[in-house]
Amino acid sequence: MQIIVDHLAVLAKKMAVAPKVDDVLVIDSQRIFHGRGRCFSGLEFVTVDYYQPVILITLFAEPPVQWLDKLVAHIKPIFDSLATCLLVQRRYLPQAPSEVLWGELPKEIYAQRGSSRFYLHLAQQQNTGFFLDMEPGRLWLEQNAAHRRVLNLFAYTCAFSVVAIAAGAEKVVNVDMSRPALNLGRANHQLNGLAKDKSEFVAENILKSWSRVKKPGPYDLVVIDPPSYQKGSFVAEKDYAKVIRRLPELMPAGGLVLACLNAPELSVAFLQQQFSEQCPQAEFVERLQPHADFPDVEPEQQLKLLVYKIPAA
What is the pLDDT of residue 117? Predict the structure, then answer.
């Protein structure tokens, strides 16, 4: 427990000196403690994130008796002089209920990334709407999106699109079967003041709508970030191959691919095999280094972010 207290004390020091805009702290959202990677014995059930002004403790299993009460007692004095809210989400219970333990949950909450912001739905859904561990992918896209036409597959709330357009992408086409997610994506673009003609939102089941996906192309860069298992729509182990084999027709002039896979049970070798079998002309470039805030005793179980180059047809 003490290591979590120590990590939060570091956060409090950052907050004390962080700049303010309109009397609001400007500090990047971040993972404060990552127990899920099994690097901290006995704390595998907990993660701690910070989304100004909310400290989010996520419990993936029922903690030991009085463990949470003791943690709160230790950390509350650290934040007494700082306007914060402590939110606990219990992912081990049905519907992953959330509870505010102190402070007030703002009506609107954002993930902060530099000068960009993204709407969150804390205490409303299991996922926040912004994945902190995907930062290496966002950084890579930021460095490679300029003047390119980007296809963002399984776009969810379109954080990749916001980053790409801010970095100078010519156009981003966002595809996801969830209209509510894409609506939030539109709101994220508006929130960041991005030109409407730079983005397009396509609400389709990707595996059943290739003609609709292909139509706004061709593309110079494709991001593939599917759910690892979504019953009835996408199961990575059997469906990822269907996406990879379509890449040459989506980008006939060649280009770059960022292939993401957040399935601990599937290895880097699995994803590389899919490319080898379904798109053998693709050239492996690199695996992006996982985010330092998400340590794991087994690198193969971390988020996989593989970069490929597709030659011109």
Answer: 96
Judge: domain 2-119, CATH 1.10.510.10.
no
CA 233 from chain centre, in angstroms, equals 20
- Render pLDDT for 253-297 as a digit per residue (tens, 0 to 9): 999 999 999 999 999 999 999 999 999 999 999 999 999 999 999
Per-residue pLDDT tens over the stretch 35-76: 999 999 999 999 999 999 999 999 999 999 999 999 999 999
Q: Where in the chain is the domain with CATH 3.40.50.150?
A: 132-310
What's the rounded Cα separation, in Å, for the pair 264 and 267?
7
Confidence of residue 123 (pLDDT cuts 50, 70, 90): confident
CATH architecture label of 132-310? 3-Layer(aba) Sandwich (3.40)
- Give the pairing of strands 85-90 and 54-59: parallel
What is the value of pTM for the model shown? 0.94
pLDDT in tens, 150-164: 999 999 999 999 999
